[in-house]
Structures are given as C-alpha cells and as structure tokens.
Amino acid sequence: MPLSPTQLANRPGPRTPEGKARSSQNARRHGVTAQTTVMTDEDRLHHDDFCNSMMSDLAPVGSMEIFLASSVAEEAWRLNYARAQCNNIVALGHFDASDAYIDQHPEIQTAIIAAETTRNQAKQLELLSLLRTEHPQKFQKHYEELKKAQAERHAKRAAELENARLLSQMAKVHNLPYVPTDDGFVFSNEEIDRHTAQYHRLRVAKRDSYAYRDRYDHIEKSKLPKAA
Q1: What three-state secondary structure class fits 159?
Q2: In the beta sheet, which residues pair with residue 28?
Q3: Mean pLDDT by 10 residues, the chain (228 residues)
C-alpha cells in the first residue's frame, strides 16, 4: 500500500554507508546562488533547468542583479512546488482511501475522497496555502527590484554613452585622437561611432517624420483597390 503523507514525512533516512553516500550526493551547490541545497537527483535537474532558464530570460548583470534574479527564479520554483504538493496530497488521498466508497458513483467517490483528504490533511494544506500566498508576493517584490536595478543601469549607460559621443565628436572636430578610457568610459571608439551614427540618423528621421508619414500614407493608399 502506498505511504500516507505522514508516513512519508516520518520515514527514516538511509542507514547503510552506501545509502548515506547516495543521499549525500543530493546535497549540491546551485551554480547561480552557490548555496548548498538538498534535493533528489530528479528534482535537482528540474530545479536547475527551471532556474537557469529563468536567469537567462532575466539577463542580470553584476552581483546585485544576479542576486535579485536568482531570488525571482527561486520564488517561482517554490510557488510551483507548493502547487504541486497540494495536488499530490489530494492524489495520495485517492491511493489511501478505504474501499468504503468503491460502490459510489465515480464523481461522488472523487468528491468524497477529496473532501476527506482535505479534512485529514488540513494542517499541511493550510501551510501550503500560506506558502502559495507568500511566494507570489516575494516573487513580485524581487522582480520589481530587479527591473528597477536594470532600468537604472540602462539609464546610466545611455547617459555615459551620450557623454562619450559629445567628447568624441569634439575631439574629431579638432582633429585629435580620442581615448574613451581617459574619461572613465568602458566603451570602445567603435561603439561610440555606432551610437553617433544612430544619433544623427534619428535626428534626420525625426526632422522628416511628417514627410515620411505622408509618403508612406500615399504608398499604402495606392495599394487599396480602386472603386469601380
């Protein structure tokens, strides 16, 4: 017979040296956080794939952003885990149910077993419910802090790149070489030149935006079918 949630929680750990050795391999350092956590090998694979994929999407730069992004990923993982545990507890109820309801209509049997499981596992479900409320709040908090940090970084970079453009153009006007690092910039001259070229293209585009709009409106209108 499958073990109940209580039996699973109270189940003793490995006793033999071989078993303890295998169990110790479940405690691994996660590559992003460098913290040691204990999981089954299967959960570890899913956890690392999930967190690494989310970290890639969040694209953090620097230790603070990495910390916030890893916090976002971990909270998302815990939220998914809490949801799965709720479903698993209810599923275990169907395995542990007595034969008292076997003659009932399938839908009635399912409803009774679900209600009985909810009653018997009320404390565990209540705890998981609290976690499912807590983790989204933490997720949102860390996510907003990460987005703020990234916005500040992007704004700082844009301001520095614009200053580098001005200084580079001044040097070119006076036929002088320009070394960005002399002004504390990490940009290369190639990056500054690309930004400068885009800056001037945008100025032209904004200046002629009305003419462009009228031209494209005319082109689009010419594509419409003519009235008979």
Answers
A1: helix
A2: 37
A3: 43 52 49 56 84 94 95 87 68 54 55 57 62 76 95 96 97 96 96 96 85 72 66
Q: Which residues contact 101 (CB under 8 A, 6 or more apart)?
A: 108, 109, 112, 113
Cα(77)–Cα(18) distance, integer angstroms: 30
Q: Write down the pTM of the prediction.
A: 0.60
127 C-beta neighbours (distance < 10 Å), count: 13
Rama region for 59: left / alpha / beta (φ>0; ψ in -120 to 50; rest): left
Phi, psi of 174 (to 5 degrees): -95, 10
* Angle, CA 42 vertex, CA 18 and CA 117 arms, to 5°: 105
Asked if 32 contacts 51 with a C-beta cutoff of 8 angstroms, the reply is: yes
Locus of tokens 């953090």: 60
Give the domain ranges of the chain. 5-155, 158-223
